[in-house]
Amino acid sequence: xxxxxxxxxxxxxxxxxxxxxxxxxxxxxxxxxxxxxxxxxxxxxxxxxxxxxxxxxxxxxxxxxxxxxxxxxxxxxxx
Length: 79
Prior knowledge:
The chain is built from 2 helices and 7 strands, in the order βββαβββαβ. It is mainly β. The chain has a single domain, classed as NE0471 N-terminal domain-like, CATH 3.30.2020.10. It has a 4-stranded antiparallel sheet with strand order 1-2-3-7, covered by helices on one side. Strands 4-5-6 form a 3-stranded antiparallel sheet. InterPro entries: DUF2442, NE0471-like_N.
């Protein structure tokens, strides 16, 4: 099982800066998902910034979400 998200911060260009419960900090690029289905609403950066941590993952007010597995596996570790 992959680590869970404990903090999230929306950064420029639709990236999420994530802190995981194993003390890793990673950067997730959400841009490849922004033209797909429910994620299209995330194209609005003001909405994108409303991201929050929920149950070890992240979500937005209209229930878009990414699992902690997806976030962990597709993110790049920050040095």
